[in-house]
């Protein structure tokens, strides 16, 4: 049985003359939280957009659950990249109903995912009136609708207050027990340190480090060392 839900092999992506991602090979274990760290502009979002089919790699290979990735695998991948894709004039349930209709999913999933992200009690309140934390949780609920094996969250705590960050942290921690592997992309070391099982550090489009997150490890020093070593010259 394959122990990895996601593998990339020498993945590359160029934008005109710039190499956004260069020979990246990540290994993400099933039912774990993988923290993808890197400065802004390091290539994290580019990598995740290739895994979610939003961008096409120039070269390299993506394996999902032991086989070569295809667009069919997006049925088992949920993602929240950048901001939550919400209709602000609709309620939480109505936002989810739009997606279940498009995806051909049963409406029973609406109540299930609202319960997971603790938004059952929002009633007729429109998404545009939600706090930033509630919007992020609704975005995660949308990503969970198809009951994914892999959930990709790109900078999910951006713009959240400390209370919202704490709530989101607890929610993310609960996913591996439900059979959902999480890739958490962030430049906030403290958040990843408290939540991740394994980490990868990207700088200048290069995966400079990958390994298990060990207790007592000086993550800040490791991050700075890798970021300096591989950062792009401006």
TrEMBL record:
The keyword Manganese does not apply. Gene3D superfamilies: P-loop containing nucleotide triphosphate hydrolases. PROSITE patterns: ABC_TRANSPORTER_2. Pfam families: ABC_tran (PF00005). Signal peptide: none annotated. Residues 6-229 form the ABC transporter domain. Keywords: ATP-binding, Nucleotide-binding, Transport. GO terms for molecular function: ATP binding; ATP hydrolysis activity. Belongs to the ABC transporter superfamily. This is Antibiotic ABC transporter ATP-binding protein.
């Amino acid at each position: 049985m394959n122990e990895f839900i996601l593998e990339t092999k020498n993945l590359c992506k160029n934008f005109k003359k710039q190499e956004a991602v260069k020979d990246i090979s990540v290994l993400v274990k099933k039912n774990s939280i993988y923290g993808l760290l890197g400065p802004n502009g390091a290539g994290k979002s580019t990598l995740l957009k290739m895994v979610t089919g939003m961008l096409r790699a120039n070269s390299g290979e993506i394996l999902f659950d032991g086989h070569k990735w295809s667009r069919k695998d997006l049925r088992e991948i949920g993602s929240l990249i950048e901001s939550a894709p919400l209709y602000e004039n609709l309620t939480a349930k109505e936002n989810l109903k739009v997606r279940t209709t498009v995806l051909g999913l049963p409406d029973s999933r609406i109540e299930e995912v609202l319960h997971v992200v603790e938004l059952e009690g929002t009633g007729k309140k429109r998404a545009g009136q939600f706090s930033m934390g509630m919007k992020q949780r609704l975005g995660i609920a949308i990503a969970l609708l198809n009951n994914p094996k892999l959930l990709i969250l790109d900078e999910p705590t951006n713009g959240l207050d400390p209370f919202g960050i704490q709530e989101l942290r607890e929610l993310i921690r609960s996913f591996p027990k439900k059979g959902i592997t999480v890739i958490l992309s962030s430049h906030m070391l403290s958040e990843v340190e408290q939540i991740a099982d394994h980490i990868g550090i990207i700088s200048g489009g290069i995966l400079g480090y990958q390994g298990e997150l060990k207790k007592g490890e000086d993550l800040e020093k490791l991050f700075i060392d890798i970021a300096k070593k591989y950062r792009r010259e401006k």
